[in-house]
Amino acid sequence: MADYSVKERRYAIEDAFLSEFACRSKDTKGRQRAEEECNMRTAFQRDRDRIIYSKAFLRLKNKTQVFFSPEGDHFRTRMTHTIDVSQIARSIARSLALNEDLAEAIALGHDLGHTPFGHAGERVLDSLSPDGFSHNVQSLRVVDVLEKDGRGLNLTFEVRDGIVNHKKSGNPATLEGKVVSLADRIAYVNHDIEDAIRAGLLSEKELPARDVKILGRSSRDRINCMITSIYESSAGKNQVTMGQREADALEDLRAFMFKKVYITPLSMKEEERAKRMLSAMYDYFLKNKDKLPAFYLQLSELYPLEQVVCDYLSSMTDKFAVAVFDNLFVPHSWALTEKDIEEM
Prior knowledge:
Number of helices: 17
Shape: flat
Strand content: under 5%
Number of strands: 0
Helix content: 55-70%
Radius of gyration: 22 Å
Oligomer: single chain
CATH superfamily: Hypothetical protein af1432
Number of domains: 1
CATH class: Mainly Alpha
């Protein structure tokens, strides 16, 4: 028989040690659909587990972070980025005595709706869909609708809110959601720098000297500096912010990466290829609805076809997108075999 004291003990620990501004597990606003509670795990712990075991989470390992099909085993994927964000978010939450379980669940789910080919794929679908496309909104759609054969994961309000509001322009309802928003920026700027240096697109000497002086030369030093700055600016307060000097340096590094890595002639050349591929498939499935997989065909009876085609395309890994495109548009050999000739 389950030990009914486990979850209650977790509640007691949160009451004793979490900040007065933290979101306690027992105070969740609940799920969209009522369901029987777990005897052992809190609602946020269950959300974390549901996300980890979802199909969308598993697909992240084969989705681009920045570099398409990189040569080498140590470039980050969308999944390793997600793990980076989770680790940084937990570190910040722990330092501020916030709810680590909630921060972790939001971090693990924040990019579930990301497209193949990274932000290039996102920009393409945004330009194609009449209602636009944004990966944070799509991530919420994944957990609300697309997972579990259309039933969704039925996550808590707090995790869903943190997922859809994780972008810089968002306004999360919890401090834990704000933690993840900052952790996302800290992770992708610093780790994309590492990948760009590994790819030979940058050298450490090219990084802006002022930002390096403020934040540190290595990724480790910069991340530690920013987490420390968040702690010093936010401890004991109903806010999660980074010190202005460090925040300005982070934004300056981000702008530097857009200029030197994210938006360059080389990256735009690859984006144009992704655009042609995704555009062709988008048009094809709009005109050939019956060629959609059965699940998405059923969805099209409930939602606009344009949205469902975006659901399908955004769910694809990079390799699967290439394979589908190849199957639809690339000619394949139909040469007669010797047996065919004999039977003629």
